[in-house]
Amino acid sequence: MPIKIPKLLPARDILEKENIFLMDDERAITQDIRPLNIVILNLMPLKEKTETQLLRLLGNTPLQVNVTLLYTSSYEAKHVSQYHLEQFYSTFDHIKERRFDGMIITGAPIEHIPYEKVHYWPELTEIMEWSKTHVTSVFNICWGAQAALYYHFGIDKKPLKEKLSGVYTHTLTDPTVKLVQGFDEEFVAPHSRHTTILESDILANSELQLLSSSDEAGVFIVMSKDQKQIMVTGHLEYDAFTLQDEYLRDQAGGFNPKLPQHYYPNDDPEKKPVHRWRSHAHLIFSNWLNYYVYQQTPYEWE
Which residues are catalytic (predicted)? Predict the structure, then answer.
C-alpha cells in the first residue's frame, strides 16, 4: 500500500522515480481502509533530504500511511526556506489535539550542546511528554534517541574524543524480538555523532532492552519494555552518499575531519561508497510499522 504525501513535496519526484508507491488526497479518500497516521518531527537542518530518506522507508510496506511533517516553532531553521515550512509542515500547537499511531523524532547535529541549553528543548520535552498519551509508538533517531533516553529514562550522553563517523558492524542480542525480525545476526549501519550512550547504563535500567550494539560504535538499538519508545543511535535511513556529504561539509568548514571508517572501498575517497545497509533499514521501519504501530494502535482512538 502507498504513502500519502502532498503533490508538491520535493521528495515526491525522487520517490516516484524509485517506484515508491505514492498517493495523493484524491485517491486516498477512495481507499476503504484505516490508514496509519505518522507524525515526523524533523530536527535535521537539511529537511528535504531527511524527508526523502524517511518517506522512502515508510512507503515500502503493505500499510497505507498518512504523514504529517512537524518542525519546532521555537527555533528558526536556517537551511530550509520559510515557504517550504509553511507549505508542508505543521507546528505542535496545530496538531497537539490530534492522536497519532506513530511518531519519528529525527537526529540533530547538536550533540555537543547540553540538552537544557538547546533552544527548542522546552518545546521538545513538551512534545515527548505529549507523545506518552497521544502516540502509540515513537521511533527516535541518533540525537533524538539520546534525547529520549535522557528525558524518559534519565540516561545522559557521554562525549567522544573524536567524531564517530562511518559504517560499523553490529550484532543482535535477541533475534526473536519483532523489531529486528529478519535481521542478520551481524549487519552494518552508519553512525555520525560526537557523543555516545554507555551500554552499562542501558543494562542497568529495568525499563529498557538492548537489542543491538557494536564493538566500535557502541549501543545501537534500544527499546523500552512497554514498546512505546524505540531508540536507534545511528542512521539506517541514510543514503549511500550522506556520510560523504557530511565529510565534505566538515572539510569545507575547516574541521579537518577523519575519513569515515569502513565506508569507502579500500578507504579510497575517490571510489564510490557502497550502500550496504539498505535491506536492514527497510526491515526495521516495516517491522516497527507492523508490530509496534499497526498491531498495537486502536482502530478508533476515541
Answer: 142 (acyl-thioester intermediate), 235 (proton acceptor), 237
Question: Which residues belong to the annotated binding site for substrate?
Answer: 163, 192, 249
Report, as an integer, the average pLDDT of 204-212.
98
The single residue of 84, 142, 152, 280 carrying the catalytic annotation is 142
Q: How far apart are the first and last CA of the chain?
A: 25
Quote the percentage of the chain above a pLDDT of 70: 89
Question: Is residue 28 scored above 50 in pLDDT?
Answer: no
Amino acid code (one letter) for 15: L
The answer to whether the CB of 213 falls within 8 A of the CB of 173 is yes
Query: Which three cell numbers mark 39?
Result: 507524525
Nearest Cα neighbor of 174 from 216, 200, 213, 123 is: 213
d(CA 187, CA 282): 13
Give binding residues as ranges.
163, 192, 249
**Of 152, 170, 235, 280, which is the active-site residue?**
235
pLDDT tens figures, 237-251 = 999 999 999 999 999
**Known active-site residue 142:** yes
Stated as kind and residue range, the H or E segment containing 103 is: strand 100-105
Cα–Cα distance for residue pair 264/272, rounded to 1 Å = 7
- Annotated active-site residue 237? The verdict is yes
Q: What distance in Å separates the CA atoms of residue 185 and residue 169, rounded to the nearest whole number?
A: 10
Stated pTM of the model = 0.89
C-alpha cell at 57: 522507508
Mean pLDDT of 194-221: 98
**Domains of the chain as residue ranges with CATH:** 3-160+193-240+276-294 (3.40.50.880)
Looking at 48, 237, 246, 280, which residue is catalytic? 237
Query: What string of DSSP letters covers 20-73?
Result: --EE-HHHHTT--S--EEEEEE---SSHHHHHHHHHHHHTSSSS-EEEEEE--T
